[in-house]
Amino acid sequence: MTKDSYIHEVRPGLPGAPTLFLFHGTGGDEHQLLSLGRELLPQATIISPRGDVSEMGAARFFHRTGEGVYDMDDLARATAKMTDFVRSHAAGADKVFGLGYSNGANILASTLFAAPDLFDAAVLMHPLIPFAPEIAGSLAGKRILVTAGRRDPICHPGLTSRLDAYLRDAGAAVTLDWHEGGHELRPNEVAAARRFLENASTEAVS
Length: 206
Hints:
206 residues; alpha/beta; seven-stranded mixed beta sheet; 5 helices; 34% helix; globular
């Protein structure tokens, strides 16, 4: 395992507080979600990697061949690499949380499918999973928040509902939070993420 397989930022938290991994959207970087992560979970240790794939200069976590069309071989490569990265940084942590937006939500979801034990709770903001995932085990006991827009031109609501069903079938406790807009983040999603992470954090120390 290696801690340096991605360019990344680390923001230390208080001893015993959860570790929160942040995964940016296409065109973002390791700084994109730092302020949001600190706002949502002020005491957490925060780790934020930068995607290692460039799409015309925009950083991503895996290649695609078109909008919503994934290079599945590269997604498998990226998932294995990210799993190793998270494990190396999460060693010894009491609770490990993940939050990703768009492409970052997709790599976070793919990592959850491949390694259900890796995260205790996850926030998937506008994920797009166009394939039927093979979940390598049970997600029982895992809490997952999915946020989405009912008019999202990138991720059709039907795909969000299908992902919800996959996660529930694998045993996860899923919360869905919608807004009436598109692919943008809205205040209700941030508020839902705050409540979700606060509750998960409280459970971690109870």
